[in-house]
Design brief:
heterodimer; A: about 400 residues; 2 domains; six-stranded mixed beta barrel; two-stranded antiparallel ribbon; 13 helices; elongated; B: about 230 residues; alpha/beta; Rossmann fold; six-stranded mixed β-sheet; about 30% strand; globular
C-alpha cells in the first residue's frame, strides 16, 4: 500500500490520461457537492428552528384572550374576554404546583424620547418572572423587581437596540426616558437571542403600566413556564386543563377556539423537532442516494478504463506483473481519483455554503455549514467507496489473459 | 535450455475442438537462434505462447532452464515470465503514455529493482540499441524501427534467459527489418538464446536453425547457413 513505486505508476497513469481522470472524478465531485449542499442546507434549517425557540424558554406557554365565537349559557357570541390580575392569581391557585414562572403582561406602542431623539417602541408592563420566560439577558443593571411592582416605580429596562437608537454614544443606564409624557429611569439594558424585534422593547413594571395607562387591573396576556420535569404530553395536558378552567370561569363554550388561546412552545417545539428529524432523514436518504450514484458512476467508468487499458495491462502482465499488482494499480487509482475528486466537491460545497452564508436567512436557512465530523466521515466513505468502485473492475483486469490482451486487432 | 516433449494443445470451437499442436518435440540449446516457420494456422504462434507462458499446454512436458513449467497459477507465471523471458512483439506493445526509458524500466519495476538502478539499467539497454538520445520520447514520436528497438531494449532489461520474438519484423519495411535482424544477430552473437516466429523466408534464413510447422506437427527441423543481415544494412 505504501509502495512509492506503485503510487508513482498511478500518478503517471492519472496525469498522462487527464481527460479520463477528470471525467471519472467529475461524477464523484458532483455527488459530493450535492451531498455537502444538502447537508449544509439541512443544518441551516435546523439552526433556524433552534434559534427561533432559543428566544423563549422551551417550557413556556402564552395565554391570550379574544372574542367568543359561540353563544353559551345565555351569552351572545362576539363577547370580548378580558383577563385581570385575578386570573393570574386564579391560575396560581389552581395550577401552582405545575407552574414554574408566571407573569402577566400588557403592551402598547408609544413614542419614546430621550433628549431630541424620538422613536416608537412597544412598551410592555411585566412582572419579575417575565425575564426567565422571555430569556431576556440583562447585561447592565437589573430587571423589574418585586419592590418595583409594589411601589409602582417609574423604571424601565430597555433593549440593546433601544439603547443604541436613543443613547448612543451615551450610556443609557441611569438616564431618564420620556414615554408619552412620563419619565422613567433606565435601570437595565438587556439583549435577547430572538432577533432584532425583541431587542427593541421596553419593559416597565406591570403595576406602573396599569396605573398610568389605564387605571384598571386589566391584563392582555399571561405567560407561564410549566415545571421543567414535565414532558411534552404532560405539558399538553396542563395546557388543556388551563384552557378548560378558564373557559368555565368566563362561561365560554368548550368548543370555542378563539376566546381563550394557549400557545404551547413545548408541543410546538416537539412537532418541529419531529419535522427537523424527518427532514434530516430525508436528506440523509437523498444524500446517500447521491453518493451511491457517484460510486456507481465511478465503478462504471473504471470498467471502461479497464477495457481501454486492456492492452497496457496485458503488456504489464507479459513483463511480469502479478495479478495482485494489477488489482492494486486499478483499485488505488480509483481510490485516489475518488478521494481527490470528492474532496474537491466537498471544498466547492463548503465554499459555496460559506459564500451564500447568511443571505438565505429569509428562506429560513441560518448559517448553513457542515461540521468536521461530517467531513471526516465523508472522507472515509469516499475512500471506501473508491475501493469498492475500483475492486470489481480491478479484479476483472487482473484476470485478463495477456495472450488475449496482446492479440493484434 | 529449452526442452519440449509431446506437447498437445487444442482450443474449443463451439462443440468441437480444434487440435492445434499435435505432439511437438523440440529442444533448444543455449545460444541458439531459432526461426519457427509455418503458414497461418500451423500452430507456430500457439507454440510461442506456450513457451512464453502466456498459454498453457494440455498435455506434454515443458522444461525451461531445468525448471519444469506446469500447473502455473497466474502469480507463478508472472514471476517466471519476469525472470526467464523477454518478449518482442510484431506491434511493439509499448505503453503509449510512458516514454522510452520508462517503458524499458517497466520489467525492472516488476522485479523490484529500485528507481535509481532501474533508470541506470534502462539507459544502459537503450544505449545498446542506440537510442540514448531518444530516452525521453514517447512511442508515438518514434519510427517503427525505433519502437521495435525500444521493445528489444525492454525485453533485454530484465536479462532474460530466453528472448521470444513474435513476427518482430512483421510491421516493418525491408530495410528496417534487416536492421532489426542485424541487431538480433548481434545479441545472439553475445550468447542470447532467441526464438523467432516468422513467415518470411529471408528473415528465417538469418537464423541458425529453422523449425517448420504444418498442421500442428514439426515437418522439418534443420540447421542452416546463417545469412548475416549486416551485409544489407
Amino acid at each position: 500500500m505504501f509502495d512509492i513505486g506503485l503510487w508513482r505508476e498511478i500518478f503517471q497513469s492519472m496525469s498522462k490520461n487527464k481527460l479520463r481522470s477528470l471525467l471519472s472524478g467529475f461524477t464523484v465531485s458532483f455527488a459530493i457537492l450535492l451531498f455537502t449542499l444538502l447537508f449544509g442546507i439541512a443544518n441551516g434549517l435546523e439552526n433556524t428552528f433552534v434559534k427561533l425557540f432559543k428566544d423563549d424558554a422551551t417550557n413556556a406557554m402564552f395565554i391570550f384572550t379574544g372574542r367568543t365565537t359561540m353563544p353559551h349559557k345565555g351569552f351572545k357570541s362576539g363577547r370580548k374576554i378580558q383577563f385581570t390580575n385575578n386570573e393570574n392569581e386564579f391560575l396560581q391557585e389552581e395550577f401552582g404546583d405545575k407552574i414554574e414562572y408566571i407573569t402577566s403582561k400588557i403592551y402598547k406602542n408609544f413614542s419614546v424620547s430621550y433628549k431630541n431623539k424620538k422613536h416608537n417602541y412597544q412598551v410592555i408592563g411585566a412582572e419579575t418572572d417575565y425575564q426567565p420566560i422571555e430569556k431576556a439577558l440583562v447585561y447592565e443593571g437589573r430587571f423589574i423587581t418585586a419592590k418595583d411592582l409594589k411601589e409602582k416605580s417609574k423604571v424601565a429596562i430597555i433593549g440593546r437596540l433601544v439603547a443604541e437608537d436613543l443613547f448612543e454614544p451615551e450610556v443609557a443606564l441611569g438616564k431618564y426616558i420620556n414615554v408619552q409624557g412620563i419619565s422613567y429611569k433606565v435601570v437595565g439594558v438587556y439583549r435577547d437571542d430572538g432577533g432584532d424585534d425583541v431587542e427593541r422593547l421596553i419593559y416597565i413594571p406591570l403595576s406602573t403600566a396599569q396605573q398610568v395607562y389605564g387605571s384598571t387591573d386589566n391584563i392582555d396576556q399571561i405567560n407561564i413556564t410549566h415545571s421543567p420535569n414535565m414532558d411534552v404530553d404532560a405539558a399538553k395536558i396542563l395546557a388543556n386543563g388551563i384552557e378548560a378552567k378558564l373557559k368555565k370561569r368566563f362561561n365560554i363554550a368548550p368548543l370555542d377556539q378563539r376566546a381563550i388561546r394557549i400557545y404551547n412552545i413545548a408541543s410546538q417545539s416537539g412537532e418541529i423537532n419531529q419535522m427537523t428529524m424527518g427532514l434530516g432523514i430525508l436528506i440523509i436518504v437523498i444524500g446517500m442516494g447521491t453518493l451511491i450514484a457517484g460510486v456507481v458512476g465511478i465503478a462504471n467508468i473504471m470498467i471502461f478504463v479497464v477495457k481501454e487499458r486492456t492492452k497496457e495491462l496485458g503488456i504489464r502482465k507479459a513483463l511480469g506483473a502479478t495479478p495482485r499488482s494489477i488489482v492494486r494499480l486499478i483499485m488505488f487509482e480509483s481510490v485516489l481519483v475518488t478521494a481527490i475528486a470528492g474532496y474537491i466537491g466537498l471544498l466547492i460545497g463548503m465554499g459555496s455554503l460559506a459564500l451564500v452564508g447568511d443571505s438565505l436567512k429569509e428562506y429560513f436557512i441560518t448559517n448553513p455549514s457542515v461540521n468536521t465530523s461530517l467531513i471526516v466521515t465523508a472522507t472515509i466513505v469516499l475512500i471506501i467507496a473508491g475501493a469498492i468502485a475500483g475492486y470489481v473492475p480491478a479484479k476483472r483486469a487482473s484476470r485478463i489473459k495477456p495472450i488475449i490482451a496482446l492479440r493484434d486487432e | 535450455m529449452l526442452e519440449i516433449k509431446k506437447l498437445h494443445k487444442s482450443y474449443p470451437i463451439g462443440k468441437d475442438s480444434l487440435h492445434v499442436l499435435k505432439g511437438i518435440d523440440l529442444s533448444v540449446k543455449e545460444g541458439e537462434l531459432v526461426a519457427i516457420m509455418g503458414s497461418s494456422g500451423s500452430g507456430k504462434s500457439t507454440l510461442l505462447n506456450i513457451i512464453g507462458m502466456l498459454d498453457e499446454a494440455d498435455e506434454g512436458d515443458y522444461i525451461l532452464d531445468n525448471v519444469p513449467i506446469k500447473n502455473l497459477n497466474e502469480k507463478k507465471a508472472a514471476v517466471y515470465r519476469n525472470k526467464f523471458l523477454g518478449f518482442i512483439f510484431q506491434s511493439f506493445n509499448l505503453i503509449n503514455y510512458k516514454n522510452a526509458v520508462e517503458n524499458v524500466s517497466l520489467p525492472l519495476y516488476y522485479q523490484g529493482v529500485n528507481r535509481k538502478e532501474r533508470y541506470e539499467k534502462a539507459m544502459f539497454h537503450l544505449g545498446k540499441v542506440g537510442l540514448t538520445d531518444w530516452a525521453k520520447h514517447l512511442p508515438n514520436e518514434l519510427s517503427g524501427g525505433q519502437k521495435q528497438r525500444v521493445a528489444i531494449a525492454r525485453a533485454l532489461a530484465a536479462q532474460p534467459k530466453l528472448l521470444l520474438a513474435d513476427e518482430p519484423t512483421g510491421a516493418l519495411d525491408t530495410k528496417t527489418s534487416y536492421e532489426i535482424m542485424d541487431f538480433i544477430q548481434e545479441l545472439n552473437d553475445e550468447g542470447k538464446t532467441i526464438l523467432i516466429v516468422t513467415h518470411e523466408e529471408d528473415i528465417a534464413n538469418m537464423c541458425k536453425r529453422i523449425v517448420r510447422l504444418k498442421d500442428g506437427v514439426i515437418m522439418e527441423d534443420s540447421y542452416v547457413e546463417q545469412v548475416r543481415a549486416s551485409q544489407y544494412v
